[in-house]
Amino acid sequence: MKTVHINLVSEQLIPNLIPTLGDENCIGVVLVLGDSKFADKAERVENLYRRNKIPILWHSQGGSSTRLSQLHKQANSVIDFLATHHGACHWVLNATCGTKPMALAFANAFNQQDKQQALVIYTDTEHKEIPLLNPGVDFTLPFKSVLSLDDYLLANSFEYDQAIRHGNDQEVLQRAPLTRYLAEQLGDKCHKMLGAIQAMATNAAKDYPQSQVQTMPSVPHSDYAHLYQRLSEEGLLHWDGHSQHINFQSENVCQYLAGRWLEEFTYLTALDCGAEEVAMSVSGRWLQGSRHFNNEDITNEFDVLVLHNNQLLTIECKASNWFRQEEHGSKNQDIIHKLDTLSKNLGGLFGSPMLVTAQQLSDTARSRAKHNRFLCCEQATEKKLQHALKRWLIHVG
Asked: Which helix (H) or strand (E) holds 130?
């Protein structure tokens, strides 16, 4: 039987989207606002439904989102509308969102009306189920993975304009063997050269191509020499095999060796772990009027985003030396604070932050990350990173 979903609109949109998008029988949605406070959210969720070819059948806006008597009248007017125009459909009231008085008034009204069969549901993201709130009923609807990364970001007020993801990640995939080799070597035998190669790459990028020739601390030997030789064979550097001088072959190479390799390694590993959607170098803008951002903070870029089962993992990748940064002020604290803030804004109630580092965290940085409940993969190797990502994937189902 066809269904009509009734969404109570508030700050969080995703609890409404999951059951509606997961219902193949849904012919449309009624949006309910207690007052005009969340009019912008109603417009956004309407756009999201339109993108997914689900029409909005009616907007119901009342005069209060807290006064129970007014909300009861509004609920009854919604029921009258449904009985008149959609009496042949099942009605599905999602009582997850809205204010608590809204949820109470509408749940009571829909449970007590006798005009049509109505389901009252709650989106429980913690337990990955959608229980019915009808009296005397102990039943849950399936919790389906229905959100695309684009929809998830837009639901939380972020509109991306650029990203590397499936379809345009050919360069990352082609470079994958080298990226995995770098992660293996820099995480083990060559870990002490990480700081030097990152510093040279950063310096080479500052005034490229005038600064593309850099001087190594000493002539590399053994494993260090093998790594530089591999980079030379891959066309990233030119090194004659016996001098201290190396020549970075492009600005893109500088960015890659300065730390981008860690982002690509994280992206590749997330794909290997079976995450539903992965994107890296995601840039875009926060929609005005939806968050309390200053004008200069309207845009952001994210290293890696992983979406799985309607939940988002926001990953910050850092190849830098945390101990050296701590000696020069509060940069470590700024990194952790930024990840915490942006992850909460981007992920909403259904997001988690993760910090992936190529080098050991300082005790202070590790303590701050733990305090903010970050997932951490410190001195990332393929084994460590796969373990951390798979734990999250299992947790979110």
From this structure: strand 130-131
- Token duo for residue 28: 């449309």
Integer Cα distance of 316 and 262 in angstroms:
10
Could you report the per-residue pLDDT of 84-129, keeping only the tens digit for each? 999 999 999 999 999 999 999 999 999 999 888 899 999 998 899 9
H helix or E strand, kind and range, residue 121? strand 118-121
Cα 116 to Cα 203: distance, rounded to the nearest angstrom: 70
Phi, psi dihedral angles at 302 (to 5 degrees): -120, 135
DSSP letters for 278-293: EEEEEEEEEPTTTS--
CA torsion 318→321→326→330, rounded to 10°? -30
- Around Cβ 82, how many Cβ atoms within 10 Å? 23
Q: Can you give the pTM of this predicted structure?
A: 0.93
Residue 263: left (phi > 0), alpha (psi -120 to 50), or beta?
alpha
In whole angstroms, give the CA distance from residue 72 to residue 91: 17
Q: What percent of the chain has pLDDT over 70?
A: 96
- CB within 8 A of 111, min separation 6: which ones? 118, 120, 133, 134, 135
Q: Map tokens 């992920």 to a residue.
A: 347
Give the closest residue to 179 by CA, choosing from 219, 222, 229, 230. 230
Contact 221, 243 (CB under 8 A): no
Return the structure tokens found at 88. 């042949």
Q: Which residues pair with 308 in a beta bridge?
A: 311
Q: Are 317 and 309 in contact (CB under 8 A)?
A: no
